[in-house]
Amino acid sequence: QLHNKLKDEL
Amino acid sequence: MNIFRLIGDLSHLAAIIILLLKIWKSRSCAGISGKSQILFAIVFTTRYLDLLTSFISLYNTCMKVIYIGCAYATVYLIYMKFRATYDGNHDSFRVEFLVVPVGGLAVLINHDFSFLEILWTFSIYLESVAILPQLFMISKTGEAETITTHYLFCLGLYRALYLFNWIWRFYFEGFFDMIAIVAGVVQTVLYCDFFYLYVTKDGKGYRFSI
Fold first, then answer.
1. Which of A2, A4, B26, B95 has its C-alpha lying 20 to 30 A from B82's C-alpha?
2. Which of B138, B137, B133 is nearest to B207 (CA)?
3. Do B60 and A6 touch (CB under 8 A)?
């Protein structure tokens, strides 16, 4: 999903 | 990576280091809420379990290890090494009123009903309210050491910068995460009152009435 891209954030 | 997220991460790192050094050098945790530090340790533990499952970048891995290490070191200093200086009477916020609702919300509102995703969601929600025991303690004692206010300023600034990071990423990369954004707004709003006091009363000591 789109939000999984946010998993590169701390 | 963009400038907002980089400065945000550095501000977060600065806050964590400032607090750890303040307690270590002054050999005292007076005025520091141990409960907030425990909540932050829980936030990092539940959010960074992916350290074991996926490698994103050296920067990502190093920062996560540093955050977790410093969080537990700070909790250790407060509750073990310098526990004689821990002001338990003023650190009286009922954290169960935070953890239970946040836990329930993470199970109800998340992007994906999987173990790691619910833990990540729990960590995002918990982080947004984790500073409350600290702000509550300052309002009870009515004062805060200057170094503590710098710690809080950096901590509040980090998530405010992340809001700009999410605007940047929506505009340039076309995606966003509503859960992270809403929690980030709540987290930043909680600091607004403190930001105002910090900016208007900078310099000669603080009398807070948050």
1. B95
2. B138
3. no
CB pair distance less than 8 Å for B177 and A6? yes
B56 shares contact with chain A (CB less than 8 Å): yes
Determine whether the interchain pair A5/B57 forms a contact, defined as Cβ–Cβ distance below 8 Å.
Answer: no
Contact B177/A2, CB-based, under 8 Å? yes
Cβ-contact B151, B19 below 8 angstroms? yes
> Residue B5: helix, strand or coil by DSSP?
helix
CA distances for B114 relative to B48, B60, B134, angstroms: 15, 23, 32
Residue type, B200: T
CA distance B142 to B94: 19
**Among B111, B173, B180, beta carbon nearest to A1:** B111
Residue B19 exposed, middle or buried by CB count within 10 Å (0-12, 13-18, 19+)? buried
Q: Which residues of chain A does B57 touch, with a Cβ-Cβ cutoff of 8 Å?
A: 8
B129: which 2 tokens? 């309210």
ipTM value, please give it.
0.84
Is B180–A1 a contact, with Cβ atoms under 8 angstroms apart?
no
Average pLDDT across each block of 10 residues of chain B; the chain has 210 residues. List them in order.
97 98 97 98 97 94 98 98 97 98 98 94 98 96 92 98 97 93 98 92 57
> Could you tell me how many helices (H) and strands (E) chain A has, helices first?
0, 0
A-proximal residues of B, 111-170, CB under 8 Å = 111-112, 120, 162, 165, 169
